[in-house]
Write a structure and sequence with these properties.
2 domains; 336 residues; six-stranded parallel sheet
Amino acid sequence: MKAIVLYDKGGKYGFEPNWSEPKLQPGHVILKVEYCGVCGSDIPRFAYAGSYHHPMILGHEFAGEIYKVNKDSAFETGAKASVLPIIPCGHCEGCKTGEPFSCKQYQFLGSRNDGGFAEYCLVPESNLFLLPEGVSTLQGSLIEPMLVGLNTVRKSGFTPGSEAIVYGAGPIGLMTACWLRVFGATRIVISDLRKFSLNMAKSLGFDELYDPLSDDEPEGGFDYAFEAAGSAKTITSSIHMLRPHGTLTVVGRDTHDTVIPVVDFEQLMRKGITLKGCWGYNDNGEHKLLAKVLSEHLIPLDKFVTQTVFPDQAPEMIAKMINKSIDYCKVTVNFK
């Protein structure tokens, strides 16, 4: 099968035209991958960090067609499905909280287990989400970041009719903004330093955009702030933008220590701001809502995809992403 293989740490990856196909196991299906998105977390793995073991097939944002099933499977071949990549153990103290990303010994398709940057992938049945009628597998490949955005808004405790500012107009920040719109925010401001990203936000229907380098600060305060840029500066900006007793939810992660000056931390304390962290997604109880939003196309998923390449073109595209020589929102690999 065609695959993009991470051979080792240190930027050692490449396209393989005849990689070994996975074998069907009990409780699993073989998914024929159609589209797999490149996540920001994939980039350092490709560039230098590697994964948990090698060789490894990365890719955790993917969807395709069920290709092989066991005789006792509840699924049928030919069905279109998206993959929810985390595989919690289901027994540890973290799992008892109902939060899959709190698991202390989880597996994960695309980092600890082979993922979606290949024509075929072995997927546990419990990690499949069947796509509603009229939802393409390209759209399905965006369900994982879509769920991360949903979880970010859920964790914030957002209430309809509130006003929010989102720092960082990458895929997660934009997904967060889209869910805020679905849930009835009366005002959404999106902030970024990159003109390309602000134009992406505009293409998704957001018209109150804020470039801190060139624009005046938005007037008025906000009930909720979402930090999706991975920057200490935007955390401190959020503190100042929030109204007293507002909520700051952090989903972005810096690659360096996050240091908040004491004067800004004091403002967080004096204003009684609630600070919440968010990691990954939690699809428990969300499948009905997810199907509705997908079926009614309440989030314009196609517009997130800025580049699509074939598998043999993927290493060159990944190198451009590593070198930051292109602008992009979501890059996908087409295995159809």
